[in-house]
């Protein structure tokens, strides 16, 4: 089926959310070596919210940005190291520094209707000669047709790959199929298409396969699904399914299974799994990295964290609005008192 699939591993970057950005240099080094040895093509390594993400708003990371990127670069023999940048959180200077530390892939992420804020960053990454990717987050929040228009903008700025990003794990298989197939029919034939899934509705692998069937050839995955919410598409599960379907890729199944089981799972602070809270993220379409914030606020204010997420969804929150969560928890607590 189609071209060989490139696996962009997000264990270190999206996985940062699940460990509150607290991977140590030693953990980054060990994970990079195992992921690289298992055959992943790209290893993304930054704070969960990308370059410049270490802050009071998103949580401070244990290690500096330079140490995170350099440790990954120093320990990857074959894989390229990538970085994520959300314009506004990260700036051009962050990108230049990441490049100087050895990052070769730059993924510029915007909300699905705001591609126009990525022009400078995509332009800069392309000018540096980086493998430049546009990353359209919360793709369920707009129509396939509109998402295509945003993808075309990123393509025109110089991105060689455009991703459908299911940040909330809310896309169904038909939703994924419609978005990826429109990209395939309408973007330039030289533009690669990617898919980034979250497993909140238990569709991470299924949606990734649908994306491949429709012409995507870059897929994000992480060991044991380590990532925000119920996690990302689990590498070892995806590899097993791709093997069964004769989809060509570079990964070794047993190595991904062993790394997930022996290395990744023991590092998890909170099991990365589908539970009532992560399922609510997918069900209501809320950004996966809100999970731990909502859980904490629910405990602090004595309210059901599912109600927080539902209210946040009704308010139309997008990534970056983590600070709304405490306000909503306080509001719900007051309503409970007055009931
Ligand atoms: C900053 C986010 O964690 C990016 C991402 O992985 C997503 O939107 O999903
Ligand atoms: Mn993600």
From TrEMBL:
One example of a Gene Ontology biological process annotation: L-leucine biosynthetic process
Keyword Lipoprotein among record annotations: no
Annotated residues for binding of Mn(2+): 14, 196, 198
First-tier enzyme category under EC: lyase
All copies of domain Pyruvate carboxyltransferase, residue ranges: 5-257
Highest taxon, organism lineage: Bacteria
Pfam family, one: DmpG_comm
EC number: 4.1.3.39
Catalytic activity: (S)-4-hydroxy-2-oxohexanoate = propanal + pyruvate; (S)-4-hydroxy-2-oxopentanoate = acetaldehyde + pyruvate
Residues reported to bind substrate: 13-14, 167, 196, 287
The UniProt record lists the keyword Secreted: no
Keywords: Aromatic hydrocarbons catabolism, Lyase, Manganese, Metal-binding
Residues under site feature: Transition state stabilizer: 13
Record-annotated active site: 17
GO MF term set: 2-isopropylmalate synthase activity; 4-hydroxy-2-oxovalerate aldolase activity; manganese ion binding
Stored InterPro entries: 2-IPM_HCS-like, 4OH_2_O-val_aldolase, Aldolase_TIM, DmpG_comm, DRE_TIM_HOA, PYR_CT
Family: Belongs to the 4-hydroxy-2-oxovalerate aldolase family.
HAMAP family according to UniProt: HOA (MF_01656)
PANTHER family recorded: 2-ISOPROPYLMALATE SYNTHASE 1, CHLOROPLASTIC-RELATED, HOMOCITRATE SYNTHASE-RELATED
Protein name: 4-hydroxy-2-oxovalerate aldolase
Species, as recorded: Salinicoccus roseus
Gene that this sequence comes from: dmpG
């Amino acid at each position: 089926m189609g071209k060989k699939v490139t696996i962009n591993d997000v264990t270190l970057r999206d996985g940062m959310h699940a460990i509150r950005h607290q991977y140590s240099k030693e953990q980054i080094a060990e994970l990079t070596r195992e992921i690289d040895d298992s055959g992943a093509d790209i290893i993304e390594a930054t704070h969960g919210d990308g370059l410049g993400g270490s802050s009071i708003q998103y949580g401070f990371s244990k290690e500096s940005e330079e140490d995170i990127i350099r440790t990954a670069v120093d320990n990857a023999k074959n894989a390229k190291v990538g970085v994520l940048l959300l314009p506004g959180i990260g700036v051009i200077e962050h990108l230049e520094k990441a490049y100087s530390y050895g990052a070769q892939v730059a993924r510029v992420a915007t909300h699905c209707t705001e591609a126009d804020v990525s022009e400078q960053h995509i332009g800069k990454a392309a000018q540096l000669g980086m493998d430049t990717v546009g990353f359209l987050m919360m793709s369920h929040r707009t129509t396939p047709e509109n998402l295509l228009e945003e993808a075309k903008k990123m393509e025109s700025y110089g991105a060689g790959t455009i991703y459908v990003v299911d940040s909330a794990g809310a896309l169904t298989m038909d939703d994924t199929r419609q978005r990826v197939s429109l990209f395939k029919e309408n973007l330039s034939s030289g533009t690669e298409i990617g898919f980034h899934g979250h497993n909140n509705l238990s569709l991470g692998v299924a949606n990734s396969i649908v994306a491949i069937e429709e012409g995507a050839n870059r897929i994000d995955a992480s060991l044991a699904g380590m990532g925000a919410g119920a996690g990302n598409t689990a590498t070892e599960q995806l590899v097993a399914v791709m093997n069964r379907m004769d989809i060509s890729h570079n990964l070794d199944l047993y190595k991904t299974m062993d790394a997930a089981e022996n290395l990744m799972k023991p590092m998890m602070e909170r099991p990365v799994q589908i539970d009532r809270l992560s399922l609510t993220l997918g069900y209501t379409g809320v950004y996966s990295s809100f999970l731990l914030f909502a859980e904490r606020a629910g405990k602090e204010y004595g309210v059901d964290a599912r109600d927080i997420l539902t209210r946040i969804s009704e308010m139309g929150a997008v990534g970056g609005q983590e600070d709304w969560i405490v306000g909503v928890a306080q509001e719900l607590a007051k309503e409970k008192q007055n009931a």
